[in-house]
Amino acid sequence: MSPTSTTSSTTGSWLVQGLLAGAAIVAAAGAYAVISTRRTAKYRSRVVGIIPARFASSRFQGKPLIPILGKPMIQRTWERAKLATTLDKLVVATDDERIAEICLGFGADVIMTSESCQNGTERCNEAIQKLRKKFDIVVNIQGDEPLIEPEIIDGVVKALQAAPDAVFSTAVTSLKPEDASDPNRVKCVVDTHGYAIYFSRGLIPCNKSGKANPHFPYLLHLGIQSYDTQFLKIYPDLPPTTLQLEEDLEQLKVLENGYKMKVIKVDHDAHGVDIPEDVKKIELLMREINLS
Question: Any stretches that span the bilayer, and where are they (predicted)?
Fold first, then answer.
């Protein structure tokens, strides 16, 4: 399925933009100028895909190793990601020996990272520093997306390559009505040029009635993200931001610090595995599309 242009969402955008203003933008300006100069100096062509995977999880212990129709979920994700044409290299980054052993068993390259990583972005940053080769773009491929389309991986890479003013790119798809109030389904709004305005666990935009509008094209954020490597080196040193902590969404630290994030709209029916109950949904879908 091929990525298409993002659907603009301008209702209430002035409110979101107001939230993003502040001192954090000024503090990040110097670092942004340095990154911008380096990005425009050459085309960002060298790309590495990294699948962060941790065993410990408050909602789903050992999630990367849970069987999905007979194969560990991390293997399902790896096999799909290997089909992407824009990746020069693909690795799994983990802090757990059990995950590493399984991944090495099915032929994946593995990089061991520390347990102190707060999120997938920080784990990707540690992994990229341990790679011998240098890369211009790092793609963070969520290990709990066993049905991720390789075309989506290629789409976020090409979006970042085509947007020299952005340090980050990601993907969204149409939000299903039944997921409108689910805090595990992260929502997104974008501007008319396809750049992210805000992400939230709540329904955005929110109208005066406080209820979901069945005719509005709400957007669901997919976990896949790509970063400019120079920005990724700076990201862990940026202090946590108010919105990031409140929503528990790492993308908001990028926006609050004044960086631009390109968003592509794609058709994607499946979602990631957040809780144990999602496993049966994924397996049912795989059977329906004859994907074993």
Answer: 12-35
